[in-house]
Specification:
heterodimer, A: about 350 residues, alpha/beta, seven-stranded mixed sheet, 11 helices, B: globular
């Protein structure tokens, strides 16, 4: 077996190399190496940008004890495996794989490196050395939906989606349910563009949604392209992952900001202390992981007040958008009155609520 | 949504926006390939043009200057390719791919300083009453670059079919040794063609960063350069067909998005996601079969020019 031999050789060589520094003065504590696998470029000003901010926060907080490395533009296919494996072979003790589509690849590489800890973002597969972590973005989308329900003139909203994965389905449902609380007839047109980052297609899809009558579009893809189109048309939308108001000062009503730094610091400290265990973390607004950006001046005071109520409800635990009665696209009652969907149920949600107009 | 005239006009305006950058880049590549050179670096040159155009507009405040800078930057990067393949006879396929990697990297590097900046946009070249009219904007409501792209299709077609210079360029692409033996500078013609291709790809890239979404984001062309390359083959190296092909591509993209937004499921989304790869396979198959099916490919396409001394 060639692979076995090569690994065996590497292990031997590694042991030899590791022995060498002991000869010299080895008083300085060795820094813990931490790897990050990014979906897009760090300059996307959205999803990957936010993860990289988290990495920078980690370096700022624990820079004397940790060293970080990252790889950008890693596709969500089999090609992610060698990237993750390479980070492990470089000596990373903790590796964050920051997109849903790395789930099986992370599990596979984790089997090869039982001593390395892995953290997979937005997935649901755990192992002894694999944790999952996620953020309850849908809480923020309920705030955006509230604003949209009150500000739409046509009653038709648009949602620029990436893939039909649970994270996005939750966002779609939360956004529309919140809008319907303010405007019961509101409907939502959803386009999945089969990519997280494709500015030309994001722009074309946004135009298509507007052509079909939507007057507010929220994005669940990673570039500010949609906001650029909305700015040109004099309409409104929201940023994703980061405050994108610089790109569209008039169109940008607000945004969901992903704040990953505190979690990254917590987990890195656990590695340093030797207390890391596999866990399933799904933080929300109350933990500071999901932050709603400041509202645009175009948001009227009464709308802002209603939006703030949703925020406050999530902060003190008195509000949950996924409280029944909730009907699905075909009008079937999916959540009975008074019942609230659990996090386990949310994690695998694959149906849309009533009023969503999208190919299932 | 009623099928009003406005509805179709909105669709047409969106489709033109999707098609124009691909048309520009493909038109440049068509001329390059007609001269017998295969430059696979279109994606990289588009990105170089996108960042050069954007950065220049940030500094000068004038998008026209930005477009000129994009053309110059695209041409400059293509001349690196030209020097390696034409003067040093390196492999065109490998060098073109390297140009794409280079363009992606250098644009990301320069672009870091320009993330989050905003630039002034092109005004309309027509009176606003025409450009904003819900019906007439189908003719007058576009960026100046759109009209430029149409004019260039006509000019390239006229140049290739009706001018002496165009005939020489085609001769260089069809039979470089013959062109050489009657005294034409094969390498000189090819350099000019490559520079033209780079300039057009650069303008195509600037269409993304200055017109569709006036911003800089790394890799913002997201693979459109490869579609432009495929389009040249589908158009069988003819400019009018290229125009039709680019707009047909725009219609396909729009139909996909339209169907999804309307809640129609024509084909599974996985099929659309696989589409670029399927198309690449088809194009590569067509290129490899070009002699048997008479694809009109320039006979010297991709071959180095090695005259007997």
């Amino acid at each position: 077996m060639a692979i076995f031999n090569r690994r065996h050789f590497l292990a031997t060589a590694g042991a030899a190399a590791a022995a060498l520094p002991l000869v010299g003065p080895a008083l300085a504590q060795e820094k813990v190496k931490i790897g990050f696998v990014y979906l897009g470029p760090i300059g996307d000003f959205g999803w990957t940008w936010a993860h990289n901010k988290g990495r920078e926060a980690l370096e700022a907080a624990l820079g004397d004890k940790v060293e970080t490395v990252y790889v950008e533009n890693v596709a969500e296919d089999a090609s992610a495996i060698p990237v993750i494996r390479d980070l492990a072979q470089q000596g990373c003790k903790l590796i964050f794989t920051t997109s849903y589509g790395y789930m099986d690849q992370t599990i596979e590489v984790a089997k090869e490196f039982p001593d390395v800890k892995f953290e997979h973002c937005t997935g649901f597969k755990l192992a002894d050395n694999v944790s999952v972590y996620n953020s309850r973005f849908h809480e923020g989308r309920a705030v955006l939906g509230t604003i949209s329900g009150m500000m739409t003139k046509t009653g038709t909203l648009g949602y620029l989606g990436s893939y039909k994965v649970p994270e996005v389905v939750l966002g779609v449902n939360s956004f529309l349910l919140a809008a319907q609380k303010k405007n019961p007839d509101a409907t939502l047109k959803v386009v999945f563009i089969d990519s997280w980052f494709d500015p030309p297609k994001e722009a074309a899809a946004t135009e298509t949604l507007l052509n079909l009558g939507a007057d507010i579009v929220t994005t669940h893809t990673d570039s500010p392209a949609a906001l650029q189109i909305l700015e040109q048309r004099g309409l409104y939308g929201f940023g994703q992952g980061a405050d994108m108001s610089a790109f569209a000062p008039n169109a940008h009503l607000s945004a969901i900001e992903d704040i990953w730094g505190p979690y990254y610091i917590l987990r890195a400290q656990a590695i340093i202390d030797g207390t890391w265990t596999s866990s399933n973390t799904w933080d929300g607004m109350v933990d500071g992981t999901v932050v709603v950006s400041p509202y645009n001046a175009a948001v009227p005071a009464d709308v802002a007040a209603e939006a703030d109520k949703i925020k406050a409800g999530y902060m003190d635990g008195t509000f949950d958008i996924f409280t029944g009665p909730i009907y699905d696209q075909d009008g079937n009652l999916k959540v009975e009155e008074g019942k609230t969907l659990t996090l386990e149920e949310l994690a695998v949600m694959d149906w849309f609520v009533k009023g969503v107009e999208s190919a299932a | 949504m009623q099928m009003t005239p406005e509805f179709f006009i909105l669709a047409i305006v969106t489709i033109v926006g999707i098609s124009t950058p691909i048309l520009l880049a493909a038109l440049g590549e068509l001329v390059v390939e007609k001269a017998g050179v295969l430059n696979l670096g279109v994606e990289g040159m588009m990105l170089v043009g996108a960042i050069a155009g954007f950065a220049t507009t940030v500094f000068t405040g004038n998008p026209w200057v930005g477009v000129l800078a994009a053309a110059a930057a695209g041409a400059t990067s293509s001349l690196i390719f030209g020097f390696l393949t034409l003067s040093l006879n390196s492999n065109q396929v490998a060098t073109g791919l390297a140009l794409t990697i280079f363009g992606t990297g250098v644009s990301s590097l320069i672009g870091t300083a320009f993330v989050g900046r905003i630039v002034p946009q092109f005004g309309s070249i027509f009176p606003p009453e025409l450009a904003r009219d819900p019906i007439l904007k189908v003719l007058f409501g576009y960026s100046p670059i759109v009209y430029f792209s149409i004019i260039m299709v006509v000019l390239v077609w006229w140049f290739l079919t009706s001018t002496r210079a165009g005939l020489i360029l085609r001769a260089v692409g069809e039979n470089d040794l013959s062109a050489h033996s009657i005294g034409y500078s094969v390498i000189g013609v090819r350099y000019l063609a490559v520079a033209f291709g780079g300039a057009m790809a650069g303008i195509g890239g600037a269409y993304f960063s200055l017109v569709i979404t006036p911003m800089w984001a790394e890799r913002m062309t997201a693979g459109r350069g490869w579609i432009a390359l495929a389009l040249v083959v589908f158009a069988s190296w003819r400019a009018p067909r290229l125009l039709v092909g680019a707009y047909f591509f725009g219609v396909l993209v729009y139909l996909e998005l339209f169907a999804k937004a309307s809640g129609l499921s024509i084909l599974p989304s996985q099929f659309w996601a696989a589409m670029p790869y399927l198309m690449t396979v088809v194009v590569l198959t067509l290129i490899s079969m070009r002699d048997r099916i008479g694809l009109n490919a320039p006979a010297c396409l991709g071959k180095p020019f090695l005259p007997a001394t």
